[in-house]
Design brief:
The protein is built from 13 helices and 8 strands. By secondary structure, it is an alpha/beta fold. Helix 1 crosses helix 13, helix 2 crosses helix 3 and helix 7 runs antiparallel to helix 8. The mean pLDDT is about 90.
Length: about 300
Amino acid sequence: MPVDAEYCPYDLDRDPGAHGLVEQWSRTDFGLLHLVRSPERTGDRATLFVHGVANTWTTWTPLLRVARELGEEFQDVVLVDLPGFGASRNRLDHLRSKDVGKALFDVVAGLGYTSVRIVGHSMGGFLTLDMASEPAFPIESVHLVSGAYFSVVKAVQEPVSTLFSSPALSIAYWSQGLLAHTGGAGVQVVKLAQKIGLFPLFLNGFAARPWAVRSSFTKSLAHDMRPKYFLLAAANGDHYDAIDRWSRIECPVHAVFGAQDKLVPPRDMTDLRRVRKDVHAHLVERCGHFAHVERPKETYRLLFPGGSRA
């Protein structure tokens, strides 16, 4: 099998300074929120990156590297660890989208920005779409990586029917619930699997080529796994009317989906297009749930067709 040099080409980087960024902690209702940002504000608009489950701000470093290599380095960026993830606290013990959105916008406003464009992955994409449906938030554009959670919302609301209609999706979703209910023991098993090189077994359905992903990525997933908070975030889907909420979004929406993603399958792209006929949605081939890590170059071009500063 020929080597695919474009698949997972970069390591995840935990050093903000490697990208010209600085760390900061901001006080929110959830407690101290950890973020990484541009050291200086050069304009009124921030680009806010919101990660998914088992991730932190570091998940976006491949995308930052692509922009830098193209001479289009992001300016005025804010990359957060969501409440309960990474170095951020969650003393409220919930992840209700309205409250998380308010906390994020308070952080951005506190940095002096008056508008924002949001880049969201997976759970972070769901939060992004929900924030964008609120007219009170000054969002200029939305950029999603596997972020249209139609299938996940259905799995939350109709678990039995989804198990029969979409067994692969149900397994991918409820595996997180199983880990949450096993407590620390389940997470320790996952971490052990990463240490002995078997973590790719857990990536079937999530990555297109589980055995080809970089060890820095699997190490990050194992270290930052928070199954409890996945369930807290998924609770937003209970009684949630995605069609009604997301049809209210007025700003431009750019979205990419992995052709081999089992958690947010390609049909979610079709559903998003039904809700927003003007959405710029693209399917990335030979890619799973982590397009910004698996195919960062193609993902960058599709999410930011005019470049990072457009």
